[in-house]
Design goal:
Blueprint: E1 36-44, E2 51-59, H1 69-79, H2 82-118, E3 125-134, E4 140-148, E5 155-169, E6 172-177, E7 182-184, E8 189-198, H3 205-212, E9 220-234, E10 237-252, E11 262-268
Antiparallel strand pairs: 1-2, 3-4, 4-8, 5-6, 5-7, 5-9, 6-8, 9-10, 10-11
């Protein structure tokens, strides 16, 4: 058998290369995304020792490159390594903890809102029982209050907040002090004694006459302003905790001491 060597130049009588596809009246160009790889293929004749070379063009997109098996082993090793598994385990635990905390917070919020709606707290009722002026080097005032808790199942704790307690005559501050700690059980009432120290400065003339005139009663109108912190608890649950203001406007017949009566009063909280 003789080897056939394709001609290196020139053209056949028909003008077509034997290995080229027929010409359909226009030039067929390779698709721009195709790249061709030239691979020399060598054939050896059984009768002769000389070599002939054929050039075969194979579209590059038809050459499939399979990643070496080592890549799969490396990826699998990293995926199953103790470090990677440990990180995933820690992340899973953190996510579960966050989810549990969020659920607990939602449940507590819903419970408190529901209890607040069912057990809607009512404000404590304050009333002034008596007022006594201490006429010493500085005039002071002892004021007796009554505090009543209208809530049957809610316990309330009181303490002073901010500026505490102030006693005014018109716009003049007469005395100030603190509210003592007070705990009221459900539907409970208790007496509260306020010891207020007199403020610096001259005492208004109307107050001085009401304290010192032994013959005639001098009525005076006073205002008591209290800033309190109140905690309302239902069992071990805190339903409400906030600062509250209590304003009491009242009128006394005299500040002489014995014989003082409360003529009128109105307390708002």
């Amino acid at each position: 058998m003789e080897e056939r060597v394709p001609p290196t130049g020139g053209s056949s009588s028909s003008g077509d290369h034997p290995n080229e596809p027929p010409n359909h009246h226009h030039h067929h160009h390779p698709h721009p995304s195709f790249e061709y790889k030239t691979q020399p293929i060598t054939f050896t004749s059984e009768q002769e020792n000389d070599l002939s070379t054929y050039v075969v063009q194979i579209p590059k997109d038809q050459i499939y490159r399979v990643p070496p098996p080592e890549n799969a082993h490396i990826v699998e090793h990293h995926r199953n390594s103790p470090t990677a598994m440990g990180k995933r385990s820690v992340c899973n635990r953190v996510l579960w903890i966050i989810m549990i905390l969020v659920i607990i917070g939602v449940v507590i919020t819903i419970t408190l809102v529901t209890l607040h709606q069912v057990y809607r707290p009512k404000p404590v009722a304050f009333s002034i029982v008596n007022v006594h002026a201490r006429n010493k080097s500085r005039i002071g005032y002892d004021i007796s209050l009554k505090a009543s808790n209208p809530n049957e199942e809610i316990k309330i704790n009181f303490a002073s907040s901010g500026g505490g307690i102030s006693l005014f005559f018109k716009t003049k501050q007469l005395a100030m002090g603190d509210f003592p700690k007070l705990q009221l059980e459900g539907s409970d009432s208790n007496a509260v004694l306020l010891n207020l120290a007199g403020s610096n400065g001259a005492v208004p003339q109307e107050i001085d006459q009401s304290i010192n005139d032994k013959k005639i009663d001098h009525q005076v109108s006073l205002s008591l302003k209290m800033k309190l912190n109140a905690d309302m608890n239902l069992g071990f649950l805190n339903l409400w905790s906030n600062d509250m203001n209590v304003d009491c406007e009242f009128k006394v017949n005299t500040l002489r001491g014995a014989g003082t009566r409360i003529l009128s009063q109105k307390c708002d909280s």
